Recover the amino acids of this structure.
C-alpha cells in the first residue's frame, strides 16, 4: 500500500492512501453485508432469549409464567419478531453467499437483485411466520 508523505512529515505521520467509507457510494450489496454482520450479532442476544425460554420451561410453571408474561407483552413480541427477522435475514444472506461460493451471481444485476431479495424476502418470510403462528393459535 502506498504511503502519503506530507512535506516535512515525520515517519509516524505517514498515512495510507486507501479509500475509506466517505469515498464509497453505498450499494445494496454493501448494505446487506453490514446487515448480515449485524443480524449475526443480534442472533447471540436471541439465543439468550431462547435459553431463557428453555430454562423457564425446565424450572416449572412459575418461571414459565414469568417468561410468558415478558415475551407476551407488546415489547416482548416486538423483540421476538425482530429475532425472527434477523434469523431469516441471516439465513438468506448465507444462501446468497453460498450462491457466490458456487461461482454464480457475480454480474452486477444479479448481485443487486440478490441483495434486494435478501431484504424483501426476509421481511416477507418473517411476516408469513408470524401470520401463520397467529392463525394457528
Amino acid at each position: 500500500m502506498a504511503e502519503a508523505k506530507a512535506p516535512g512529515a515525520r515517519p509516524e505521520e505517514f498515512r495510507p492512501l486507501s479509500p475509506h467509507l466517505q469515498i464509497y457510494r453505498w450499494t445494496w450489496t454493501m448494505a446487506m453485508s453490514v446487515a448480515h454482520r449485524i443480524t449475526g450479532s443480534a442472533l447471540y442476544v436471541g439465543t439468550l432469549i431462547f435459553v431463557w425460554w428453555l430454562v423457564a420451561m425446565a424450572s416449572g410453571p412459575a418461571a414459565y409464567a414469568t417468561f410468558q408474561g415478558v415475551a407476551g407483552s407488546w415489547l416482548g413480541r416486538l423483540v421476538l419478531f425482530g429475532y425472527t427477522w434477523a434469523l431469516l435475514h441471516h439465513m438468506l444472506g448465507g444462501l446468497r453467499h453460498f450462491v457466490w461460493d458456487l461461482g454464480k451471481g457475480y454480474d452486477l444485476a444479479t448481485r443487486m437483485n440478490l441483495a434486494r431479495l435478501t431484504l424483501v424476502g426476509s421481511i416477507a418470510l418473517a411476516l408469513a411466520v408470524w401470520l401463520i403462528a397467529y392463525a394457528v393459535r
